[in-house]
Design goal:
The protein has 224 residues and is of the alpha/beta class. Helix content is 38%, strand content 24%. Strand 7, helix 5 and strand 8 form a beta-alpha-beta unit. Helix 3 packs across helix 4.
Length: 224
């Protein structure tokens, strides 16, 4: 069963998003899913449902308060107006809420583009996370110390990317491994947002399928 819902964090704060319950028996674990700069749209809900079919309980957070766009200029405004500190608090509340729903559940965080950057931010701020999966997103160095991450990291990045450039990915990998953080970063011969099948100008089916299988295998290994 899936639907729009609110979860309540440990401190009583409510977080709004899309909940997709694990199918096929008891959940293997839980995943907080973080949307791109477009907002919590049908594409992200679809990813939540795909993960649920793999046996995970998934909560896709809504960091824009219900706002969604297909216009890059509007998306840039929404991203620019985002309070990253508040977003980090909402993501932590979401992970806590998932743990409260099923005590003992291991929780991962996963996100795309903006959500990928927030995935690493959340992992740096929450030592109790069990895994982190950023897709082509890296937070600003000035705002996040990624060496504080304690969860294993599986990263997916494109070689043709003006935002998460290959050089930035290399720096990220060096920092993570220098801090002895279990990190596996994959580079794909593709463009930024290659996983988004609603954007034919960048979507790469072969690379998306490869990244998906790696992600599912990783989550099963880390969440049990």
């Amino acid at each position: 069963m899936a639907g729009q819902t609110k979860l309540t964090g440990k401190q009583g704060q409510e977080v709004t998003g899309y909940l997709s319950e694990a199918s096929g028996g008891p959940a293997r674990g839980a995943v907080v899913l973080v949307h791109e700069w477009w907002g919590l749209n049908d594409h992200i809900r679809g990813i939540a449902d795909r993960l649920a079919r793999e046996g995970f309980t998934v909560f896709a957070t809504d960091l824009y308060g219900g706002r969604v766009t297909k216009d890059p200029k509007e998306a840039d405004k929404l991203l620019g107006a985002l309070d990253w500190g508040r977003a980090a608090a909402e993501l932590r509340a979401a992970t806590e809420a998932l743990r409260q729903r099923a005590p003992g559940t291991k929780v991962a965080i996963m996100g795309f583009c903006m959500g990928g950057a927030l995935t690493l931010l959340a992992a740096a701020n929450d030592p109790q996370l069990d895994a982190a999966v950023p897709f082509y997103g890296i937070p600003p160095e000035s705002g996040v110390d990624v060496t504080r991450i304690r969860a294993p990291v599986l990263g997916h990045f494109a070689r043709n990317d003006d935002w998460c450039t290959p050089d930035r990915v290399d720096v990220l990998e060096k920092k993570l491994k220098g801090a002895n953080i279990p990190a596996e970063l994959h580079r794909y011969d593709a463009s930024h947002a290659f996983f988004n099948d609603t954007r034919p100008e960048v979507y790469s089916r072969d690379n998306a399928e490869k990244a998906w299988q790696r992600t599912v295998d990783f989550l099963r290994a880390k969440l049990g």
